[in-house]
C-alpha cells in the first residue's frame, strides 16, 4: 500500500495549510526543508507575483511543495446587494471620516485558470491542491499531465465521494474546527458541516484514496488522535500562523495569543463566504453570518478602507483574524521546529 509520504515525496505526511494573505514562500520553504509539505497559497497573487514566488521557491528548496488554488466561480457584482452592504457599513465610514462613495468593488481572489495551468506546466510542483471543489475538467487534466499529485478539500462525505470520482490522489477532510475558509462546495448549507473527529472516520470509510485530516490540529497529541481515526496524514494551519515565517500583522498575532482566541466563529462578513476567525467588532455587530454580504469574494472590497484606517489606530475591528478552534494550544516557534515537533507522531 502506498503511504502518503511516498505519494507526496515527503519525509513526514505533514502538510502546512496554504493560508492566503498570511504567508509567502518563506513559510513554504521552511516546512518543505524540514521534511513536511510546504504550501503556497496562490489565490491572492497575480500571475506575475506568483511567478516571482515560484522562482524564489525553486532557488531555496529542492524538496516537494504544494501550490494551492481556489476554484470558485467569478461573480459579477449585484448592484442591489452592493448598495445594501454599503448602507450597512456607512456608519463606520462616517466614524472614521471616510467617503463610502469612493469604495470600489473588487475581489482580490482569482480562481484557477489556463494561465495558472501554464505556471504549473512550467514549474512542475510535486503537488497541486484545490479549495471549493475542482477546476473544469480540461484544466484538471492539464494538472494531472504535469505530474503533480492532486489534493482537494472535502467538508462532507458527499464532497469526498465527488472528489474521488474525479480522480484526486488524496482528500483533505476539513473539520468544522478549521480556521479560514470552509472548503464547502456542493451546498451552502452550514448545517452539513461536522467536527473533524466525526467527519474523518466517515470519509476514511467511504473512500479508497488517502485521507488527510485538518481542523484543530495544533500539537503532536492531536496528530496522533487523527492517525488513530484513520488519517494518512495531517494538514496544519493556525499553529503555523504563530511562526516568524508567517506574514500576519501584530494585531493578528496578538489576538491569536490572547484569551480572545478561545471564541471563534464562522463568518461571511469579510469575503462573502464562511470562514472561521476570532470574534471582533464587525462580526459581533453585523454577523457572524450576514445575508446582505456580497457573494464571495466581493464583500472584501468595501471593508478594506475600514480595515486600513482601524489598523492604523491599533484596532482589529475590521481585520479578518483567521483562526482555528485550537489557537491556545499553539506555540510561538519556528516553522521547522514546529514541523519536527509534529513529526514525533510518525516516529
Helix and strand layout, with pairings?
Elements: H1 4-8, E1 14-16, H2 25-33, E2 38-41, H3 47-60, E3 65-70, H4 79-95, H5 114-123, E4 127-131, H6 137-145, E5 149-154, H7 157-165, E6 170-174, E7 180-181, H8 196-206, E8 211-214, H9 220-228, E9 233-236, H10 238-241, H11 250-256, E10 264-267, E11 275-278, H12 281-286, H13 300-312, H14 335-343
Parallel strand pairs: 1-9, 2-3, 3-4, 4-5, 5-6, 6-8, 8-9
Antiparallel strand pairs: 7-11, 10-11
Helix pairs in contact: 2-3, 3-5
Written account of the structure:
- The chain is of the alpha/beta class and 347 residues long.
- It folds into 2 domains: 1-72 and 109-244 and 332-347, TIM Barrel, CATH 3.20.20; 75-108 and 259-325, no CATH class.
- The chain has helices spanning 4-8, 25-33, 47-60, 79-95, 114-123, 137-145, 157-165, 196-206, 220-228, 238-241, 250-256, 281-286, 300-312, 335-343, and strands at residues 14-16, 38-41, 65-70, 127-131, 149-154, 170-174, 180-181, 211-214, 233-236, 264-267, 275-278.
- An 8-stranded parallel β-sheet has the order 1-9-8-6-5-4-3-2. The chain has a 3-stranded antiparallel β-sheet with strand order 7-11-10, with no helix packed on it.
- Helix 2 (25-33) runs parallel beside helix 3 (47-60) and helix 3 (47-60) runs parallel beside helix 5.
- The longest helix has 17 residues, at 79-95.
- The mean pLDDT is 95.
Give a brief outline of the structure:
With 347 residues, the chain is α/β, with parallel strands linked by helices.
Classified in CATH, the superfamily of the largest domain is Aldolase class I
Q: Main beta sheet, described?
A: 8 strands, parallel
Rough shape? globular
Based on secondary structure, the structural category is alpha/beta
CATH class identity of the largest domain:
Alpha Beta
Portion in beta strands = 5-15%
Tell me the CATH architecture of the largest domain: Alpha-Beta Barrel
The number of distinct structural domains comes to 2
Amino acid at each position: 500500500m502506498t503511504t502518503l509520504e511516498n505519494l507526496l515525496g515527503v519525509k513526514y505526511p505533514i502538510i502546512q495549510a496554504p493560508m492566503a494573505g498570511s504567508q509567502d514562500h518563506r513559510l513554504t520553504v521552511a516546512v518543505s526543508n524540514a521534511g513536511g509539505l510546504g504550501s503556497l497559497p496562490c489565490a491572492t497573487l497575480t500571475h506575475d507575483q506568483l511567478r516571482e514566488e515560484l522562482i524564489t521557491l525553486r532557488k531555496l528548496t529542492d524538496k516537494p511543495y504544494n501550490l494551492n488554488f481556489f476554484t470558485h466561480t467569478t461573480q459579477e457584482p449585484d448592484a442591489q446587494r452592493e448598495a445594501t452592504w454599503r448602507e450597512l457599513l456607512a456608519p463606520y465610514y462616517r466614524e472614521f471620516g471616510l467617503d463610502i462613495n469612493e469604495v470600489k468593488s473588487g475581489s482580490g481572489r482569482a480562481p484557477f485558470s489556463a494561465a495558472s495551468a501554464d505556471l504549473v506546466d512550467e514549474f512542475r510542483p510535486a503537488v497541486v491542491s484545490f479549495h471549493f471543489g475542482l477546476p473544469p475538467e480540461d484544466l484538471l487534466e492539464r494538472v494531472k499531465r504535469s505530474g503533480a499529485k492532486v489534493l482537494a478539500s472535502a467538508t462532507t462525505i458527499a464532497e469526498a465521494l465527488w472528489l474521488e470520482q474525479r480522480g484526486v490522489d488524496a482528500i483533505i477532510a476539513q473539520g468544522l474546527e478549521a480556521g479560514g475558509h470552509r472548503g464547502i462546495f456542493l451546498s451552502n448549507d452550514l448545517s452539513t458541516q461536522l467536527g473533524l473527529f466525526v467527519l474523518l472516520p466517515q470519509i476514511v470509510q467511504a473512500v479508497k484514496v488517502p485521507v488527510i485530516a485538518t481542523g484543530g490540529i495544533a500539537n503532536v497529541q492531536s496528530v496522533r488522535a487523527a492517525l488513530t481515526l484513520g488519517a494518512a496524514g495531517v494538514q496544519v494551519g493556525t499553529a503555523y500562523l504563530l511562526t516568524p515565517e508567517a506574514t500576519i500583522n501584530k494585531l493578528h498575532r496578538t489576538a491569536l495569543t490572547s484569551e480572545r482566541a478561545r471564541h471563534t466563529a464562522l463568518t461571511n462578513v469579510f469575503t462573502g463566504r464562511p470562514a472561521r476567525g476570532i470574534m471582533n467588532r464587525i462580526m459581533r455587530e453585523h454577523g457572524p453570518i450576514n445575508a446582505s454580504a456580497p457573494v464571495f469574494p466581493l464583500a472584501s472590497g468595501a471593508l478594506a478602507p475600514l480595515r486600513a484606517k482601524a489598523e492604523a489606530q491599533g484596532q482589529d475591528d475590521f481585520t479578518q483574524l483567521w483562526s482555528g478552534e485550537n489557537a491556545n494550544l499553539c506555540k510561538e516557534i519556528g516553522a521547522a521546529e514546529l514541523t519536527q515537533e509534529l513529526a514525533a507522531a510518525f516516529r
